[in-house]
Structures are given as C-alpha cells and as structure tokens.
Structure prediction request, 183 residues.
Amino acid sequence: MVKIAEFRLNKYNSLIINLAALTNLAIVTALLWILKGKDEILFYLEQLYYNGQILSLVLTLLAVVILHEAIHGLVYLVFGAKLKFGINQLNIYTMDVSGNLYTTYQMAIIMLLPFFALTGLLIIAAMLFSRLSLCMWIGIICNICGSTGDILLLTYILYNRKISKGKSLRIRDEEHGFGIYTQ
Prediction:
C-alpha cells in the first residue's frame, strides 16, 4: 500500500472545519429567522428561559455531542476497530487505533451515520415530547453543524478517490488525522 494523501487536524484545518460549522449555524439560523420570523424565534427563546428549560437545552446539546461520537464508535466497532476518543484543536473525535484499513464505502458509513441517525432520532423525539421540541430542534441544528467536519473529510476522501482514477482506496486512522492509501 502506498500513501497518496493524508489529513492532519492541525490549527489551520481545525479553523477551516470550525468556520464551516459556524457558517452552517449562521445559515440555519438565518433560514429559521426568515421562515419563522423574529418574533416567533424570540418567543421560543423566552419560553426556554421562563419555563426553566435552559438546563434541558444544555443537557440536550451535551447528549447530542456524546451520542454523535458514540454512533461513530459503534460503526467503527462493527468494522472491528479499537477505539480512542479525544479532543484536539477544539474538535471532539473518535478514532480507530488498531491500524485497520477501511474502504471508501465503510468510511462513508462511519462518517455519515451520526448525521442521519441522530437527526432522525431527534425529529422523532421532538414529535413525541412536544414540551421539549425546541430543545430537540436546537439539538438537530447542533448535530447538523457538528457533522460539517465529517462531511468535509468525506469529501476530501472522495476527491482523492476521483483523482486516483478508480484505484481501490483504503483509509487508516492515524494520530490526529487519517491516511489515504492505494495499491
């Protein structure tokens, strides 16, 4: 196997990922502002405060982050990984320290399942627990923004797949990043 590319989570890459996530947050917030209106958004925020749901909101956001990484971890385990969780450059991560090589398809599942599964679960929770629906919707926004890095990294992998002209790629988690290999 020959390494053809790598990604390192350094200060610059972390800045790019976090700016992209904040841009997503601004876009979603602007869309909500346009669709719902300023008065309705402020009403919801006041309800959070006056109904004592601030703690619920904080716990929801914490749960979203933990569940997002746990879903990454569960998928990794299905593929035989040995897990490590951590924080680097303000980014929370889950990685495989076993040295396993993953196909592009496997990495797509690992990276995208938290986006789809957790968003779906939060939508169901918002419908079932109407009193906490605003917390759930904010959790959905948090998960979408938090998935920005996963989507960007998967795009990088797919870009390298394209430029390798159809060669079979394998991806290996490495300390604070990953390597892309081909035969």
